[in-house]
Amino acid sequence: MNEPIGLYIMAAIYIFGGLMHFLKPKMYMRIMPKYLPNHKALVYLSGVAEIVLGIGLCIPAVKAFSIYGIMAMLAVFLLVHVYMLSSEKAAAGIPKWILILRLPLQFGLMYWAWIYL
Predict the structure, then answer these.
(1) pLDDT of residue 92
(2) If the chain, 117 residues long, is cut into consecutive pieces of 10 residues, what is the mean pLDDT of each piece?
(3) Are 104 and 81 spatial neighbours (Cβ–Cβ below 8 Å)?
(4) Cα separation, 73 vs 12, whole angstroms
(5) CA-based angle 114:105:23, to the nearest 5?
């Protein structure tokens, strides 16, 4: 239990985010790039990944694996963020300036995970 509180906050954020994929799947399906198949399955799979990786942050034996998994997941999620900039429907009502700010935020989140390696 010597881990910094920030690691547990990060874990809670990913677990909560993953749960939201199951509670509000339509919200996530709406922002899925059209070129990806099986949107519903991908939404649920990404939700499971967020939950599992978030829990993994709290288990010392798999913490490093979870950190690398989160960094990879965030890199893949960049596809969704770029797609959301491509049309008003994909933007889901989010202002364009916020969508633009989300791109560097992804790299900030990757760095936040990396510092706990």
Answers:
(1) 84
(2) 87 98 94 92 98 97 98 95 88 91 95 96
(3) no
(4) 16
(5) 95
Q: Domains of the chain: which residue ranges?
A: 5-115
Residue 113 carries which side chain, given as an amino acid letter? A
**How distant, in Å, are the alpha carbons of 11, 46, 56 from that of 6?**
9, 22, 14
Tokens of 26: 């339509």
Rounded Cα distance between 9 and 35, Å, is 33
What's the DSSP call for residue 116? T
Helices (H), the chain: 5-23, 25-30, 39-56, 63-84, 88-91, 96-114
Q: Give the span between the Cα atoms of 66 and 107, in whole angstroms.
A: 17
Q: Which tokens go with 86? A: 């491509």
Helix axes 5-23, 39-56, angle to 10 degrees: 160
Whole-number Å distance between alpha carbons of 7 and 91: 30
Q: Which residues contact 64 (CB under 8 A, 6 or more apart)?
A: 117
Distance of CA 54 to the CA centre of its chain: 10
